[in-house]
Amino acid sequence: MYGLDDLATRTLNHLSGHSPIMDGFMILLSEVGIPLMVALVVAQWWVRTSREHTRHVLVSSGLTFLLGLALNQVILLFVHRMRPYDAGLTHLLVAPNPDYSFPSDHATASFAIAAAFLVHRFYRRGLAFLIVAFLIAFSRVYIGIHYLTDVIGGATTGLLAAYLVRKFYREGNWLDQRLTRIG
């Protein structure tokens, strides 16, 4: 498995360094993709159609985002994977990161947002967020900061978080009524 992961990571990372425009885009996407997604979620708070339901989905998205990152912290207690550039596998386009590599917080956060919208049947928005999530995950391997399985693991954590929030955070409960009426 590690050999295949190394090969896939090296192949994707070796796409970098040939086009300054593509390198710049991937670096930018890696740096601002998550904040942009969060801003787009927050901006929907003031929509006029299906306001309470939309706000429930937005709160669920935020909870999914936080739960996914919390799950990553638990995983990091047990998994201490070295970054691919530390292993001499990739060349790095950004400053090194001192944290462990698995799972990717960027992949977790972006897939958590997309999955939260999809499990609530907001398919158009969810699909748009999913496309961005795939691009962000790809950018993390492209710029040399993660192995391919790091972003797959992060995406899985984000999807699991969306499932858990959907299962346990119910629309219309006491907390949901209080939160969706803010602002």
TrEMBL record:
Domain of life the protein comes from: Bacteria
Reaction equation(s) it catalyzes: di-trans,octa-cis-undecaprenyl diphosphate + H2O = di-trans,octa-cis-undecaprenyl phosphate + phosphate + H(+)
Ranges of residues in domain Phosphatidic acid phosphatase type 2/haloperoxidase: 58-166
Residue ranges crossing the lipid bilayer per the database entry: 25-46, 58-80, 100-119, 126-145, 151-169
Transmembrane helix as UniProt keyword: yes
InterPro entries in alphabetical order: PAP2/HPO, PAP2/HPO_sf
A UniProt-annotated Pfam family: PAP2
Protein name: undecaprenyl-diphosphate phosphatase
